[in-house]
């Protein structure tokens, strides 16, 4: 059988799709990569929440799947929104790479003054944990962000460590502890979306990692119940069914945080509802301060 793999055209997206291609071809499946432009790729230099959230990287690929133009779509799992089109499913979740953020800098940590990131979560966590630093907005793909760092616009920038690893980059800096700088739900994970097709699902089952699926689906269940929006400083991380989740104020001075073992999706949903209640004022403040209507 031959499969058409849909992917965005960024260097990172292509690296992820090519890895999926390799894994499938080791199972005797021939593949072809099809590059599809998304709204997130076409609109640059503005925050994600201003153009529709992280789902802008996914919708064009969803549409191509539903039209039958591709057989599977490869995504960074954290980009997949909670609400999904009817008829599509997550056919495989690859073994998780590093979930952590990475602070890229050739400076000693004490000499870092200006840090670049466009993430409200990373901004809030930096303001909480790295007092004395200044966070400035930084947009663009990995290459663009690294170029701006090289041009000395920033002393340091923050990347997902998994992305740098998939690109084969060896960068100076430090790995940020994911129990302190709690990552976005599903960070470090690649997911493969397809139609409800038994033959394709059977092929994908050979590269589906059950432990990663278990932990990341717990993260998604918590995230979906919180309903915080992609612009709220929210971290959700599960390892071996142990959950750390936090919602922060935009300035990083306030937080609501829980740490608890979670062994079922039902328990994850209960904790998500608990967090939504406990962090309600922080979530509402984020909507209001960013001028976003419910």
Question: What about the largest sheet?
Answer: 5 strands, mixed
| The CATH architecture of the largest domain | 3-Layer(aba) Sandwich
Structural class: alpha/beta
Main CATH class of the largest domain: Alpha Beta
Outline type = globular
Return residue spans where pLDDT drops below 50 for at least 5 consecutive residues: 46-53
CA-CA gap between termini: 45 Å
Please give the order of strands in the largest beta sheet. 2-1-3-10-4
Q: In percent terms, what proportion of residues is strand?
A: 15-25%
Count of discrete structural domains: 3
Q: Count helical runs.
A: 10
Alpha-carbon Rg, integer: 19 Å
Count the E strands. 13
- Can you write the helix and strand succession as a string? EHEHHEEEEHEHEHEEHHEEEHH
Helix content: 25-40%
- Mean pLDDT across the residues is 93
- The CATH superfamily of the largest domain is known as Periplasmic binding protein-like II
CATH fold-type name of the largest domain: D-Maltodextrin-Binding Protein, domain 2
Folded structure, characterized:
- This protein is of the alpha/beta class.
- It folds into 3 domains: 1-94 and 189-208, 3-Layer(aba) Sandwich (D-Maltodextrin-Binding Protein, domain 2); 101-175, 3-Layer(aba) Sandwich (D-Maltodextrin-Binding Protein, domain 2); 209-294, Porphobilinogen deaminase, C-terminal domain (Double Stranded RNA Binding Domain), CATH 3.30.160.40.
- 34% of the residues lie in helices and 23% in strands.
- The strands form 3 sheets. A 5-stranded mixed beta sheet has the order 2-1-3-10-4, with helices on both faces. A 5-stranded mixed beta sheet has the order 7-6-8-5-9, sandwiched between helices.
- Helix 8 packs parallel to helix 9.
- The longest helix is centred in the C-terminal third of the chain and has 17 residues, at 210-226.
- The termini are far apart.
- Residues 46-53 have low confidence and may be disordered.
């Amino acid at each position: 059988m031959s499969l058409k793999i849909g992917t965005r055209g960024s260097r990172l997206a292509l690296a992820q799709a090519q890895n999926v291609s390799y894994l499938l071809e080791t199972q005797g499946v021939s593949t072809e990569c099809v590059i599809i432009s998304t709204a997130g790729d076409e609109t640059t230099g503005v925050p994600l929440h201003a153009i529709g959230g992280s789902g802008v990287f996914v919708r064009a690929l969803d549409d191509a799947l539903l039209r039958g133009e591709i057989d599977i779509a490869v995504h960074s799992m954290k980009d997949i929104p909670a609400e999904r089109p009817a008829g599509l499913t997550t056919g495989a979740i690859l073994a998780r790479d590093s979930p952590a953020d990475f602070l890229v800098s050739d400076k000693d940590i004490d000499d870092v003054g200006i840090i670049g990131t466009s993430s409200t979560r990373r901004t809030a966590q930096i303001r909480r944990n790295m007092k004395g630093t200044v966070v400035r907005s930084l947009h663009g793909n990995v290459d663009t962000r690294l170029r701006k760092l090289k041009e000395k616009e920033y002393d340091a920038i923050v990347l997902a460590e998994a992305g740098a690893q998939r690109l084969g980059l060896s960068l100076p800096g430090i790995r940020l502890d994911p129990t302190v700088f709690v990552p976005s739900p599903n960070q470090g994970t690649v997911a493969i979306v397809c139609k409800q097709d038994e033959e394709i699902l059977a092929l994908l089952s050979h590269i589906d990692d059950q432990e990663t699926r278990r932990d990341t689906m717990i993260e998604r269940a918590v995230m979906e119940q919180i309903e915080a929006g992609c612009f709220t400083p929210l971290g959700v991380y599960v390892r071996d069914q142990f959950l750390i989740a936090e919602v922060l104020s935009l300035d990083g001075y306030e937080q609501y945080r829980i740490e608890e073992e979670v062994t079922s999706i039902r328990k994850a949903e209960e904790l998500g509802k608990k967090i939504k209640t406990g962090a309600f004022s922080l979530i509402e403040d984020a909507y209001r301060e960013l001028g976003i209507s419910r």
